[in-house]
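Section 3.1 - Work completed
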Amino acid sequence: MTDWRSLTTSFRFPTGLLIDGTWFEGSDSFEVISPIDGAVLGRVSSADVADVDRAVRAARRAFEDGRWSGKTPAERKEVLLRWAQLCEEHRERLALAHALEMGKPAREAHGVDMRAVIRTLQWFGEAVDKIVDELPHVSPDALAMVQREPAGVVGAVVPWNFPLTMAAWKLAPALASGCTVVLKPAEQSPISALLLAELGMEAGLPDGVLNVVNGPGHVTGQALGRHPDVDVLTFTGSTEVGRRFMEYSASSNLKRVWLELGGKGANVVFPDADLDKAARTAAWSIFYNAGQMCSAGSRLLVHESVHDDVVRTVLDVAATMQPGDPLDHDVPMGSVVTHEHRDRIHSMVVEGLRASGETLTGGSPVLVDSGGAYYPPTVIDSVASDTLLAQQEVFGPVLAVTSFRTEEEALALANGTPYGLASAVWTNDLNRAHRFSRALKFGVVWVNCYEEGDLTVPFGGVKLSGFGRDKSLHALDKFYDLKTTWIDLT
């Protein structure tokens, strides 16, 4: 069993900007605060417009001279596999960074997030030399070729809630395709990204192929989004910021922008479902990672005939998932990412309750004397479908419960938000499962489960949840240009 607290005494991490294979001090710096106890983990460099320009120019040179794009897919594969192996060797260090900077239990970061990172690097490394071009059957007097070419320089902006997993979901397919990357981690969680990039360089990524620029979104992110020499921008985060990246693209070079944004997922529970499994999974789907997931099951839509039984089980699970120090081995839930975010969650709960709802558990910050940012599992019953808690993304461990009577009402409730990332239906009626899942307007639909899947299937949403897909072979499509060549054979 890892003693996470003892590892903090020797924990060290890069603090600069990674540009063209060299660590630079930025024009400014900022403190990284741990939400565990409010302690300062250190200062990291912050990139301004000039720093971002230098990183993009380094990525452009690295792309154009072919030091990476000119390698064969098999050669790129070997680097990605070495990178995955180094992540395995440094698994505890990366997991500790994850826990210290965003408050996730270190045990979960080690067992879940690091497994996802390693597997993502391996999967796209193994996949890329299996991608083939196309030779459509056309006229006997012509030859048509459809070739996939790396798109160029990619700007990747990743969130703080899964800082390593989201970085891997962007970096692995972009680099596998032959693109070069400028990565901007969230200012709340730069440490894990810097460590990941350090291992990538050790694995054999040539200078300039992966660059990392830390800094606030309104400065560093905007500079990357507006840069005229970035070909593709991939972003995971809030819908509000996603809109800004679309505006940055429109006002600069019309770079392609791929967005994975917010969500307001629902677990829809019918009376013929396995109610115990449905309730326990519904609780886990909102309380895991302290509810800080765009795909979180933040709404529980339950048939009125089984409402009391399902909610009772949800409350039983909530009682076992109270937050605590993420460095303790058995803690079920850690902190939220910052004190500001904790206060935002609480203000949304207070505001939402003015419109409708009854708090069954939670509803106020806890462990305040620890200096950390802790918010407990919160269940609010009888939430009206047109109110804040049913419509807006809280991004915390807050579950809004609403009852329904008919299948038609349940479908209207489930689809009745501007988001469309992920949802689930719980029923043992096969016809209903097919019928209802087909009618749900979400990019991902689970039946009798939640948050299941692997790298073979795409992840992404519709409506205000964005477009484009992470994971699966479809993720590579974002980073290729298709070139059609038609040769006249007469």
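Second construct:
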Amino acid sequence: MKHATFLEKVWFDEAVTCRSRAEIGIPEASGESFILHDGDTIASVQQAHREACEASWRATSSLGLEDWVYGYRRGPLPLRWVYLHVLRELAQHGGHADILREQILNG
């Protein structure tokens, strides 16, 4: 969930609003988004994700799929590409979680 929150903030805050990762309060490297900190709880991580999603909806509510976003490091991208990329990333990581779940259940 922490990495999913990072994805939301990279693609719908950094890319759409053009704010830097430092301004957003997220790590520069994506690998750091997997790290749990002492204050992290299931509730706090879930709440952070909900808030990131709500911010994403607000940031994109006035945009169409063919609109371009300019804040991502690779350069301008159509919003449609951003949505599809985030969907692919979430599906990929959901698959990872399913593999871990199966390993835990089947020992």
